[in-house]
Write a structure and sequence with these properties.
The chain has 296 residues and is mainly beta. It has two helices and 22 strands. The chain is globular, with a radius of gyration of 21 Å. The two termini are 25 Å apart.
């Protein structure tokens, strides 16, 4: 924050614990963790000595109250149907489907929130699934662009990629699809409550946050990390070089909330901002599991 006579700056503190609590979410041993676009559902594989427990599972992070009824989450399908524990998983853009592709090339569509008694084999219709998912993504992108101010929409369409709106919808996290100098959206420069420098010149591949209300663009990092919005609309969460960090949306006040063993780049913020899920293990002799870093 810049301290200057007659200059007003906005300060919004996120109070984080100095020693966050780490608690196990699963204990059965998991892998291949993915998260849907809404950041509310995790899906993952379980390869257990018990054939009935092996398969694909999901965890609804938005459930209230969040109670872990088992040591694994909700089992969507077991290896009794096929070797699902070996499948590559991906969410549809809508988050309403999971595509599980086995090493054999067999593909299945799964419902992500409940057990799939008869998994839908889409091996022979994979092109139809790809086309449907592409249309879903196009519809999501169009909806986001249509929600932007009239003068900002063409700029975003030309230079923004991987756009993720903030929880309140007043900011956009994005990667620059090409280098450019961004035109201003507002005709007059209005007094800003944020003293951080505005970066109108963007570099291809770098990560930025565009503040729609203030018509300001902030550079975060070089784009090598995956960033997620915190529920407060003002902070981003990401993993970098063995640490889990929280940073303000303008790139300032970086705070490390976890520095310990975990699978780097795999961080999953809780939708209510109360914690962050990571994939870790406490020793080399035990399997990986989900752990929750408490932020409150």
């Amino acid at each position: 924050i810049i301290i200057k006579k007659s200059f007003v700056s906005e300060a919004n503190a996120l109070l984080l614990p100095t020693t966050p609590k780490l608690e196990a979410v699963t204990t059965i041993g998991i892998s291949n963790v993915i998260m849907d676009a809404s950041q509310t559902i995790l899906a993952y594989s379980v390869a257990s000595a018990s054939g009935t427990k092996s398969g694909i599972y999901s965890l609804d992070m938005s459930a209230r109250p969040l109670i872990f009824l088992t040591d694994s989450g909700t089992q969507l399908v077991s290896d009794a149907h096929d070797f699902f524990s070996t499948a590559k998983l991906s969410f549809s853009p809508s988050g309403k489907e999971i595509l599980a592709v086995l090493p054999s090339g067999t593909g299945y569509l799964l419902e992500p929130r409940s057990a799939n008694q008869t998994p839908q084999d889409v091996t022979n219709t994979s092109l139809v699934v790809e086309r449907d998912w592409a249309q879903q993504q196009q519809a999501r992108d169009k909806k986001l662009l249509d929600s932007l101010p009239r003068k900002l929409a063409p700029i975003a369409a030309s230079y923004f990629t991987n756009m993720v709106p903030s929880p309140d919808g007043d900011k956009i996290l994005y990667n620059a699809s090409s280098s450019a100098a961004l035109d201003r959206v507002t005709e007059a420069s209005t007094p800003s409550v944020n003293s951080t420098s505005d970066h109108r010149t963007i570099k291809e591949g770098h990560t930025y946050v565009y503040d729609i209300k203030e018509d300001k663009n902030y550079e975060i990092r070089d784009g090598s990390n995956k960033y997620f919005w915190h529920a407060d609309d003002r902070h981003l969460i990401y993993a970098d070089r063995g640490k889990v960090n929280v940073v303000e949306f303008d790139g300032g006040n970086l705070t490390t909330v976890y520095d310990g063993p975990f699978v780097d780049s795999l961080v999953f913020p809780w939708p209510d901002g109360s914690g962050i899920a990571i994939l870790s293990r406490l020793s080399q002799s035990v399997p990986y599991n989900l752990y929750r870093i408490g932020l409150q």
